[in-house]
């Protein structure tokens, strides 16, 4: 009996070690998906207001890979909210709409420091409208890809743990789009020009017309090179989960256009206020 006991114990120990090793994974998936709802009823409320029902569906997920000196983190945040307001016009209104995707791949070169390449995309799913509470049709003021923000960058990432991270990129590109398709423009004449004005994807012609005005050169997108900074927290304690982030971008180039008169004489610059130190805050 004893001669079989040691091999059996060794076999059990081996199976136990293998099971423990199998439990360890370089991948970590976490997040939260849910639906928030609220309702408000007003009876003889002197301050005024309307009965309303609100709902927001959301999902925030993170996929993290960390093994040896390689780290890859991907985050997806999606949210859509709708409100019903007890009123004659515009009873249903969109309250929130977010598509926010970010991914970054890093190589650890010293302790918690990573040389990192990152990319991100942010837009929305449905049309945004200017609700004015009247019988008139509510004009479209935003849509998918109008606007959208795409970021590609290379920089240094500091991740002391799986909860907190800071990322600084001195080489960051940002593409802002204000795309309006032909069908949408046909149904809403002038929308394409309005969108490109609002999100600044246009540029002025350099030479003035005979009457001294400058033509706008409308474009679906603009690209900028600048500095990018991001901070993120993803923390879970028992039943409490905190997921938050902040992003800053400032362009290097002072986006100013040389201006010439109708005789092609240089008369100065037109400045659209896109310059280093003016930050886009996300």
Topology:
Elements: H1 2-23, E1 27-40, E2 52-67, E3 70-85, E4 92-110, E5 113-123, E6 128-129, E7 140-142, E8 148-158, E9 164-177, H2 182-187, H3 191-198, E10 203-204, E11 216-217, E12 221-237, E13 240-251, E14 256-260, E15 266-271, E16 280-281
Antiparallel strand pairs: 1-2, 2-3, 3-4, 4-5, 5-8, 6-7, 8-9, 9-12, 10-11, 12-13, 13-16, 14-15
What's the tally of helices? 3
Oligomerization: single chain
Extract low-pLDDT stretches. Answer: 4-22
Specify the helix fraction band: 10-25%
Radius of gyration: 27 Å
- What's the story with the biggest beta sheet? 10 strands, antiparallel
Alpha-beta classification: mainly beta
Helices and strands, in N-to-C order?
A: HEEEEEEEEEHHEEEEEEE
- Strand order in the largest sheet: 1-2-3-4-5-8-9-12-13-16
Shape: flat
**What's the total count of β strands?**
16
The percentage of residues in β strands lies in over 45%
* CA(first)-CA(last) distance: 70 Å
Mean pLDDT reading:
86
Quick overview:
The chain is 13% helix and 54% strand. It contains 3 helices and 16 strands.
Structural write-up:
With 282 residues, this protein is mainly beta. It is built from three helices and 16 strands. The chain has a ten-stranded antiparallel sheet with strand order 1-2-3-4-5-8-9-12-13-16, with no helix packed on it. A two-stranded antiparallel ribbon has the order 6-7. It has a two-stranded antiparallel sheet with strand order 10-11. A hairpin with a 2-residue loop joins strand 12 and strand 13. The chain is flat. The termini are far apart.
């Amino acid at each position: 009996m004893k001669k079989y006991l040691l091999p059996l114990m060794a076999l059990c120990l081996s199976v136990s070690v293998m099971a423990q090793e199998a439990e360890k994974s370089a991948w970590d998936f976490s997040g939260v998906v849910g639906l928030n709802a609220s309702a408000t009823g007003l009876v003889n409320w002197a301050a005024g207001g309307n009965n309303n029902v609100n709902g927001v569906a959301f999902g925030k997920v993170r996929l993290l890979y960390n093994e040896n000196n390689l780290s890859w983190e991907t985050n997806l945040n999606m949210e859509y909210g709708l409100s019903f307001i007890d009123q004659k016009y515009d009873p249903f209104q969109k309250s929130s709409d977010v598509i926010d995707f970010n991914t970054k791949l890093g190589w650890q070169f010293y302790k918690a420091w990573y040389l990192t390449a990152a990319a991100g995309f942010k837009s929305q799913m449905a049309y945004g409208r200017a609700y004015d509470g009247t019988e008139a049709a509510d004009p479209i003021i935003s849509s998918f890809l109008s606007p959208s923000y795409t970021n590609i960058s290379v920089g240094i990432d500091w991740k002391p743990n799986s909860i907190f991270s800071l990322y600084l990129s001195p080489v960051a590109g940002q593409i802002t789009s204000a795309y309006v398709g032909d069908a949408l423009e046909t149904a809403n004449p002038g929308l394409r020009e309005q969108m490109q004005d609002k999100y600044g994807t246009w540029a002025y012609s350099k030479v003035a017309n005979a009457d001294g005005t400058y033509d706008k050169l409308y474009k679906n997108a603009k690209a900028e090179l600048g500095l990018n900074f991001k901070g993120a927290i993803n923390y879970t304690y028992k039943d409490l989960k905190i997921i938050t982030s902040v992003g800053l971008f400032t362009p290097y180039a002072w986006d100013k256009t040389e201006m010439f008169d109708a005789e092609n004489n240089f008369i100065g610059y037109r400045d659209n206020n896109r310059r280093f130190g003016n930050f886009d805050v996300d």
